[in-house]
TrEMBL record:
Keywords: Glycosyltransferase, Transferase. It comes from the Bacteria. Pfam families: Glyco_trans_1_4, Glyco_trans_4_4. Gene3D superfamilies: Glycogen Phosphorylase B (3.40.50.2000). This is D-inositol 3-phosphate glycosyltransferase. Residues 188-367 form the Glycosyltransferase subfamily 4-like N-terminal domain. SUPFAM superfamilies: UDP-Glycosyltransferase/glycogen phosphorylase.
């Protein structure tokens, strides 16, 4: 577990210098998203003193995006250095329309960034075509690199070289290529990856994980070691002195850096996850070493990207954009090129088949649970007392990433409705994310009946679930939520808690049309309120759903998933 601090500082300094040279105002916006709340609050207070534009930035740093945009809308056209500040905040907020009438709209880099944000790659490149400023030339190289990666049939140059291989083991030895991992990032992605690694290891497979080039230094972890060990799982980092100036350069460098790990570990298969950048690395590394590679599709990238836009207009523009179509085609192409494909829901499997992936080449590995969760037994009120929360009342909530599409605002509104009808309802939402500031504002109206503790450890997260009388997954009806199944409701079932879920295909599949949970109309706080009221007033129904959910969860363990992984990995032909 080597720490090379000088190298890490060079990597971080190179990344920061590139951002500062490109656009210091934009870098400040990106950096503000990573500030801890204890630091962001006084900085925001300082920005409040710098006039209306400073106030807009302050609101953004506090997480009050709607308030920031409202201040931008009321500002007159800016001049001088403020043009760039205004434009970068408007672009970050997915409101490029605010650039109209503002002189900054004519700046090539800003215009290109606005076009790229909306998914119009060709228009973004065209905006830079006749500019010879250093920042414009640099940004053009960046966009050309993105265009290259999205070009059909493009493969990384490193895939052309073949490296002689020694005889390999007959037992599966799996090299996992991941975007990020524990302990530096805690998310549904990293938790699933970790559980899969543990389950494969416990099933007798040799496993090793490697994260993307530069990670975690590029996300601010200057003290990162070359290897982290979590629960006996090794996570190796790819941290060269130079990362490469464009994404094709970086990915190709990552492949070459991984040659030494392949030589030491001697894998029998390369396994990676969405998105296409990971797939390109796996494809190239597998070709160099005459190995099969498998692709785990955990989401449809283009849908996730379009859904993440901040406004309805931006989401609609993104869904019909050039970038959306290119990502859609690229993901389908690479899934078809893989030796085998794994995915997490029947809905997603069916869509992969529609995209041309043979059905017999796809295995369904849904989000599952650690079998030890099934052995836990607890009473919600007793757990709340242990955690220092009021034991009385009916508590509904979630432990989740706090992003808009999860619909936690609907849950808060639903609990408010219940309280107006005389029910002692409470809400607990643990986790962190972009929507937390707005959720805190909404929760203020509930006073002590709302508890939002922020990010918590994995074990404490389970205790918070056990503190709830019902777990709510009020996901909004969007393209991305119609195909992806979250992990948390399955864990809630395993812990014996009834679940209330939005009427979306993967969630209906999970709860079995009201057999193992309550399905409610999506995007409706009233529907959530009615379902929770039923659970709060019908103890027998509550117990019935909890028991059915626990029984279902018993068939959804990572041990069972490992059996399917082993079957596929064993049957793969070398270099297939």
């Amino acid at each position: 577990m080597t720490l090379n601090l000088p190298r890490n500082l060079r990597i971080a300094a190179t990344a920061v210098a590139g951002h500062l040279l490109d656009d210091p105002a934009r870098f400040a916006l990106l950096a503000s998203q990573r500030f801890p709340s204890g630091f962001a609050k006084p900085v925001a207070a300082l920005l409040d003193r710098f006039g209306p534009l400073g106030e807009a930035y302050a609101e953004w740093m506090r997480g009050h995006r709607d308030d920031a945009v409202a201040k931008l809308e009321n500002l007159p056209p800016q001049r001088g250095r403020k043009q760039g500040l205004f434009a970068n905040l408007a672009i970050a907020a997915d409101r490029p329309d605010l650039l109209e009438g503002n002189a900054s709209a004519t700046a090539p880099v800003l215009e290109a960034r606005a076009k790229w944000q909306l998914g119009e790659l060709s228009q973004a490149l065209a905006a830079l075509e006749h500019s010879y400023a250093p920042s414009a030339r640099k940004y053009r190289r960046v966009l050309e690199g993105e265009q290259t990666l999205l070009t059909p049939i493009y493969r990384l140059p490193s895939s052309a070289m073949r490296i002689p291989q020694a005889p390999r083991s007959s037992a599966p030895r799996v090299l996992h290529l991941l975007t990020n991992s524990l302990p530096h990032t805690q998310s549904g992605y990293t938790l699933r990856s970790h559980e899969i690694l543990k389950a494969q290891r416990d099933a007798g497979m040799a496993v090793l994980a490697v994260t993307r080039i530069g990670y975690p230094v590029t996300v601010g972890k200057l003290g990162a070691h070359d290897v982290d060990i979590v629960d006996g799982i090794e996570y190796h980092r790819v941290l060269p002195g130079r990362l490469g100036s464009t994404m094709p350069d970086r990915l190709d460098k990552q492949v070459r850096e991984l040659d030494s790990i392949v030589a030491r570990f001697q894998p029998t298969v390369i396994h990676t996850t969405t998105n296409y950048t990971n797939a390109l690395v796996a494809q190239s590394l597998a070709a160099r070493h005459s190995l099969p590679w498998t692709y785990e599709v955990r989401g449809m990238l283009e849908k996730t990207w379009a859904t993440s836009r901040a406004t309805e207009a931006a989401r609609e523009a993104a869904a019909s954009s050039e970038r959306f179509q290119l990502m859609h085609a690229r993901e389908a192409e690479l899934a078809k090129a893989a030796s085998h494909v794994f995915t997490i829901s029947s809905t997603m499997r069916d869509e992969l088949v529609e995209r041309g992936v043979p059905a017999d080449k796809i295995s369904l590995i849904p989000n599952s649970i650690d079998g030890q969760l099934l052995e836990r037994s607890s009473v919600p009120a007793e757990v709340r007392a242990e955690l220092g929360l009021p034991s009385e009342g009916f508590w509904a909530g979630a432990v989740s990433s706090l992003v808009d599409y999860e619909g936690h605002d609907l849950l808060i509104d639903a609990v408010g409705q219940m309280r107006t009808h005389g029910i002692d309802a409470r809400v607990l939402i643990a986790g962190d994310g972009a929507s937390r500031p707005e959720l805190l504002q909404l929760a203020n109206a509930l006073g002590d009946a709302a508890h939002l503790p922020g990010r918590v450890s994995p074990e404490l997260a389970k205790r918070y679930v056990e503190a709830l009388d019902a777990v709510v997954v009020a996901r909004r009806d969007l393209e991305v939520t119609r195909s992806v199944t979250p992990l948390k409701p399955i864990e809630a079932m395993a812990l014996g808690r009834p679940v209330v879920v939005s009427d979306l295909p993967p969630l209906r599949e999970l709860v079995g049309e009201n057999k193992r949970g309550v399905v409610v109309e999506a995007d409706s706080a009233t529907a959530v309120s009615e379902a929770l009221t039923m659970l709060a007033t019908d103890a027998s129904r509550n117990v019935e759903l909890a028991a059915a959910g626990k029984q279902f969860a018993s068939s959804m363990t990572w041990d069972s998933a490992a059996t399917e992984y082993r079957r596929v990995f064993t049957d793969l032909e070398p270099g297939s």
